[in-house]
């Protein structure tokens, strides 16, 4: 069978959620559409679709294959359109190089919804043929297993097998509500934190600690905090309600300080900067849409002299 036709049928089935509707969109019977999808599955050696209630939905492999097929078909349409009106070589090159298709992108919930969303909005305005499928998760993601094209990761070094692009770090600042500080007093140095309620954080069900250094000494907010939360938004609300001292990203903290709901503490200490990377799988073909997305994000968020490194 014609492979492009099989891809077209598969894409229509996924978009409509139905073999019969996908077949109708392609001008064929449901039985013929089934055979086209089965031809792809035989070629790949794995199922691409599964039934969920009355709908046909893609498997994990099917989701990734759908994105690639949609891009291939869009590029074929672009190439066919170049024949209209005798397009110039420059126009042809521009059309062929234009990123198209869907990108599945992962980021921590607060980073994605607050720090990155304005940049995503600008990216989509300038890339009308690309769609972003955001997976906002406060846990480590398996790019291959979950069909993620690119992931923003905060914290430690990326895992092996990933190409990592260094971005600007996320600045974190200690803060508390005026009410809490009036009751418990203002800490003057990191060692004073031992006498305060420090709000903890939890990532992937692991309780974290945060540390501020001063003059070669350090003080850690231990894991026995009276309240621990899995994301900064919850910690922010806990701090606003006077539950303790939190270590929050500057982009979340600034509006609350301006409104008088939170106060920066330990301002004499250098703010903590949590590293952030944009990663994708190593050793794989990088589509034009992924390459363009990475370049765009690094240009917007990357530090000077940023570089890509492959984790061994």
List the topology elements.
Blueprint: H1 3-16, H2 19-25, H3 30-44, E1 49-52, E2 55-58, H4 60-81, H5 89-97, E3 101-107, H6 109-126, E4 130-136, H7 143-146, E5 150-154, E6 162-176, H8 178-184, E7 200-203, E8 206-207, E9 210-214, E10 217-221, E11 228-229, H9 232-240, E12 246-249, H10 250-258, E13 263-264, E14 272-281, H11 288-301, E15 308-310
Helix pairs in contact: 1-2, 1-3, 1-4, 2-3
Low-confidence stretches: 88-96, 215-219
Proportion of residues in extended strands: 25-35%
**Biggest beta-sheet profile:** 8 strands, mixed
The count of β-strands is 15
Number of helices: 11
Would you kindly provide a written description of the structure presented here, covering whatever features stand out?
One of its GO terms (biological process) is DNA-templated transcription. Residues 1-59 form the HTH lysR-type domain. This is LysR family transcriptional regulator. The chain is of the alpha+beta class and 312 residues long. The chain folds into three domains: 3-82, Winged helix-like DNA-binding domain superfamily/Winged helix DNA-binding domain (Arc Repressor Mutant, subunit A, Orthogonal Bundle); 101-168 and 275-301, D-Maltodextrin-Binding Protein, domain 2, CATH 3.40.190; 170-215 and 223-273, 3-Layer(aba) Sandwich (D-Maltodextrin-Binding Protein, domain 2), CATH 3.40.190. It is 41% helix and 25% strand. The chain contains eleven helices and 15 strands. The chain has helices spanning 3-16, 19-25, 30-44, 60-81, 89-97, 109-126, 143-146, 178-184, 232-240, 250-258, 288-301; strands at residues 49-52, 55-58, 101-107, 130-136, 150-154, 162-176, 200-203, 206-207, 210-214, 217-221, 228-229, 246-249, 263-264, 272-281, 308-310. Strands 3, 4, 5, 6, 12, 13, 14 and 15 form an eight-stranded mixed sheet that branches. Helix 1 (3-16) crosses helix 2 (19-25). It is elongated, with a radius of gyration of 25 Å. The two termini are 40 Å apart. The model is unreliable at 88-96 and 215-219 (pLDDT under 50).
């Amino acid at each position: 069978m014609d492979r492009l036709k099989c891809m077209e049928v598969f894409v229509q089935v996924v978009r409509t959620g139905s073999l019969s509707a996908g077949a109708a969109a392609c001008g064929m019977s449901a039985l013929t559409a089934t055979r086209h999808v089965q031809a792809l599955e035989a070629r790949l050696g794995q199922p691409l679709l599964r039934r969920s209630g009355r709908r046909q939905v893609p498997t994990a492999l099917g989701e990734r294959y759908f994105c690639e097929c949609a891009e291939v078909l869009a590029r074929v349409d672009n190439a066919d359109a170049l024949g209209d009106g005798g397009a110039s070589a420059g126009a042809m090159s521009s059309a062929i190089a234009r990123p198209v298709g869907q990108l599945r992108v992962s980021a921590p919930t607060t980073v994605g919804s607050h720090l990155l969303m304005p940049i995503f909005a600008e990216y989509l305005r300038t890339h009308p043929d690309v769609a972003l499928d955001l997976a906002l998760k406060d846990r480590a993601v398996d790019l291959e297993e979950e069909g993620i094209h690119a992931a923003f990761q905060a914290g430690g070094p990326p895992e092996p097998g990933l190409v990592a692009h260094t971005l600007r770090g996320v600045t974190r600042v200690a803060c508390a509500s005026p009410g809490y500080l009036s009751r418990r007093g203002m800490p003057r140095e990191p060692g004073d934190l031992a006498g305060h309620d420090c709000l903890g954080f939890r990532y992937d069900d692991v309780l974290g600690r945060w540390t501020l250094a001063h003059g070669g000494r350090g003080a850690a907010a231990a894991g026995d905090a009276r309240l621990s939360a899995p994301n900064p938004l919850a910690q922010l609300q806990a701090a606003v309600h006077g539950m303790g001292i939190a270590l929050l990203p500057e982009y979340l903290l600034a509006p609350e300080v301006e409104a008088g709901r939170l106060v920066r503490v330990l301002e004499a200490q250098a703010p903590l900067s949590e590293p952030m990377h944009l990663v994708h799988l190593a050793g794989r073909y990088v589509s034009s849409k992924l390459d363009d997305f990475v370049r765009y994000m690094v240009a917007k968020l990357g530090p000077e002299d940023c570089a890509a490194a492959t984790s061994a």
